[in-house]
Design brief:
The protein is an alpha/beta fold and 646 residues long. The protein has 24 helices and 13 strands. An 8-stranded mixed β-sheet has the order 4-3-7-1-8-9-2-10, with helices on both faces. A hairpin with a 2-residue loop joins strand 5 and strand 6. Helix 4 runs parallel beside helix 6.
Length: 646
């Protein structure tokens, strides 16, 4: 009995150390059986735990022990944040870089600030763990819904998020339950350790650490860090705090090296002085057709990722289209969300990949009602009536402000409709959307060409709807049967999109005026991670460059109700699509669009992955070749949207 009591007392006095070693064992199991971390992470955390043994058992200075407990807690919090943010955590001793160092430093600083405010280590750990839990759970949901964690720009997109907030599945998963329990247990054990070492007043080591932290922060934030962010892109979701800091720094506009408005104007003047004579508006088969552009929410062909076997076709009509149409792949710059960037790239002809730091231009550069040159204004100058239609709330992505700046004649949102449209799940269906388009063209003034820009809603995430307004009709077969309900719900939605498109094009086939219908997806959907592994044979962090590029491709269709060239075009990025369309229809374009079309002939793809040249060579974003070959275009993007020089 005495022996049991003795052993119990030993365990009771060393609960934190024992729990830390159990965490090491758990990390090792996660690596061995689930591949959710790497062995270097296990070794790094084991080193921290062993240092904890030394400090708590052999260092007699309570202030030093308190500081180490706080550092240990911050390291633990960073691991938890990494798990919640993306489900994996790659801190490796062999691949560690400056971003990882910044990230660990910021984690410690987070806890240390709360310690300076409260004067108590246990309070600092309690508040620090709470902040980590809130940030981590927020990121976990955002990664589930759109594949990207919280960013500074989301603050301006709060209304957009609020519009669809109730349309997702918020059921906690094992990740969240495990990490919340772990953070609570850690706090309880840390609290006991601090009670053993309670200090009556602040100690000299506290002041030393504070001074060191402040002086270490200055060069990291003001110098090295911005350079890392803009030039190397060494970020992953396991270094989230560092990424968030860079995102915040990126809001302070950093212009490209050598940028000036005068230089941008000279680039356009030099190009147009050497270019062939500008196109004239043509007659006969190509005289000022009505143009209907449909950016279909999350519309994609997942077969681009790999073979998919289903019990029935989901793009049967799309596959059958051959005559009087151009088909290809729209190479977009976003995945799982941030619809506004795809919309912006098409309407502006700017590539978001050319910004120094990640931005959402709709939120960043359209706060004032500046007149902005875009596809809209170019067509208005040629006599087109212009309409923007989105069957959802006007508060999303600052669209009202943007559309006014772009000079749309008519701006129509869900709240502007007099009659309700057909819905599917919680959103307007594509059939309901296209019904409105048909009604609009039935009533439009004859012989007045119309540019009608439509952003749909039917296929918006998430894909866990369980109600009476939608039933899954497409099921995976083979080894995937019954395993991926989100993917099956999404494919069923795409099947409905395909049916609705057939009805719309059949309507325009017999329309008395020439019509061009353009349709592309804004991004691929965010589905089960296991689904991507099944389709491609690899987890997404193991994808090769081709697989990474394929994740940013959506189907593109340019269809005519008159005889037209039907040669397919392969890959094209969205910033080129508007001038390509103007060329296809024989319409005039702006000097800027002429320049962009000239770049398309050399670099048909530019997106967040990188550039692809006319010979098929790929140069990833951030590489020297990418920088050199896009330098002029980057200058023009900043002149066009940031400063609105023209």
């Amino acid at each position: 009995m005495d022996r049991k009591k003795f052993c119990w007392n030993i365990c009771k006095d060393n609960m934190l150390l024992i729990y830390g070693l159990l965490q090491v064992i758990l990390l090792a199991m996660l690596r061995k059986y689930y591949l959710l971390t790497v062995y270097q992470t296990v070794a790094a955390y084991l080193f921290v735990c062993l240092c904890g043994v030394i400090v708590l058992k052999f260092v007699r200075n309570k202030a030093v022990q308190n500081i180490y407990l706080l550092m240990w807690s911050s390291f633990h919090g960073i691991i938890i944040l990494g798990f919640l943010t993306q489900g994996t955590f790659y801190l490796t001793l062999t691949q560690i870089n400056k971003v990882q160092i910044v990230n660990l430093f910021l984690g410690f600083l987070l806890y240390w600030i709360f310690y300076l405010i409260s004067g108590k280590g246990q309070t600092a750990v309690a508040v620090g763990n709470l902040v980590i839990a809130v940030m981590g759970i927020t990121n976990h949901y955002l990664m589930r819904f759109r594949g990207a964690p919280f960013q500074i720009s989301d603050l301006k997109a709060a209304k957009t998020a609020g519009n669809v907030f109730l349309n997702y599945d918020y059921m906690p998963d094992l990740y969240m339950l495990f990490t919340v329990i772990d953070l609570f247990v850690w706090y309880k054990l840390i609290k006991q350790e601090y009670q053993k070492r309670e200090l009556k007043k602040r100690q000299i080591p506290d002041a030393i650490v504070t001074v060191a932290a402040v002086f270490a922060c200055i060069p990291l934030v003001n110098g090295t860090y911005q350079k890392i962010y803009s030039e190397t892109g060494q970020f992953s979701k396991d270094s989230y705090l560092a990424e968030l800091l860079a995102d915040a720094e990126g809001k302070i506009e950093s212009y490209p090296e050598g940028y000036s408005a005068e230089n941008a104007k000279k680039i356009l003047q030099d190009f147009n002085s050497q270019a062939l004579q500008k196109q004239e508006m043509v007659s006969t088969a190509k005289k000022m057709p009505n143009i209907v552009v449909i950016m279909n929410e999350a519309f994609s062909d997942l077969r681009v990722l790999g073979e998919i076997e289903t019990d029935q076709p989901f793009l049967e009509y799309w596959d059958s289209l051959e005559e009087n149409c151009i088909k290809g792949w729209a190479n977009v710059s976003v995945f799982g969300g941030t619809t506004a960037n795809s919309e912006y790239e098409f309407l502006s002809s700017d590539a978001t990949a050319l910004y120094q730091n990640p931005v959402i231009p709709y939120n960043n550069y359209f706060e004032q009602t500046d007149v902005y040159q875009s596809m809209v204004s170019v067509l208005k100058d040629q006599g087109y009536e212009t309409t923007a239609f989105h069957p959802y709330l006007s508060s999303g992505w600052n669209r009202t402000q943007v559309y006014r700046a772009m000079q749309f004649d008519h701006i129509i949102f869900l709240e502007d409709l007099e009659q309700p449209l057909d819905t599917m799940r919680l959103y307007t269906s594509d059939e309901g959307d296209y019904t409105y388009i048909r009604q609009y063209f039935d009533q439009k003034e004859k012989n007045t060409p119309q540019f009608f820009f439509n952003v749909t809603m039917q296929n918006h995430s998430g894909y866990t709807y369980d109600g009476d307004n939608f039933k899954t009709t497409v099921h995976l077969r083979g080894d995937a049967a019954g395993k991926f309900p989100q993917a099956e719900q999404y494919l069923s939605l795409i099947r409905e999109s395909d049916k609705a498109l057939k009805g719309l094009l059949e309507y325009f086939e017999n329309y008395e005026e020439p019509v061009v219908v353009v349709m592309f997806g804004d991004h691929q959907p965010k589905l089960e991670e296991e689904f991507y592994s099944y389709v491609t044979g690899n987890t997404r962090d193991q994808w090769n460059l081709t697989q990474q590029r394929n994740q940013y491709k959506t189907p593109l269709l340019i269809w005519h109700n008159y005889v037209a060239d039907s040669e397919n075009i392969g890959d094209i990025s969205l910033n080129y699509l508007a001038p390509f369309l103007l060329q296809d229809t024989g319409l005039n374009m702006s000097d800027y669009q002429h320049y962009i079309l000239g770049q398309y002939e050399e670099l048909p793809v530019i997106n967040s992955i990188g550039i692809v040249d006319v010979n098929g060579n790929v140069y990833v974003r951030g590489s020297e070749e990418f920088t050199e070959r896009t330098r002029e275009m980057q200058t023009l993007v900043y002149a066009h949207t940031v400063e609105k020089v023209w």
